[in-house]
Design a protein that fits this description.
alpha+beta, four-stranded antiparallel sheet, 4 strands
Length: 106
């Protein structure tokens, strides 16, 4: 099981200071801070949950949000059945359709 700081560093979030349980921080967003005019403005709000093992974040500039809650769980792939092929059913045109083509000399 990885520590909270390792989980955050995997997402390029650098937390300065301690990650005490229940604490809130304002840090630089790894998704958008490098493109902003004021590159040193901390726009990512990060909150460490009550047990101190996970965190949740939201960027007030680009809207990037996420959590570390499910990092340690194995990845599950959704089950899918066999692909269903569409049926190739071409019907003969009706008498009305054939008359319409004949009137237009098609």
């Amino acid at each position: 099981m990885r520590s909270l700081s390792e989980k955050l560093l995997a997402r390029k979030i650098v937390l300065h200071g301690s990650a005490a349980a229940g604490s809130s921080h304002k840090v630089l967003c790894p998704e958008c801070s490098h493109t902003r005019r004021n590159k040193k403005d901390p726009c990512l709000s990060l909150t460490v949950d009550g047990d101190g093992d996970n965190a949740i974040w939201n960027c007030h500039n680009c809207g990037w949000a996420g959590t570390t809650k499910w990092d340690d769980q194995p990845e599950r792939r959704p089950r899918r059945g066999p692909p269903v092929r569409p049926k190739d059913t071409i019907e003969r045109p009706t008498v009305e359709v054939m008359q319409w083509f004949a009137e237009r000399q098609i």
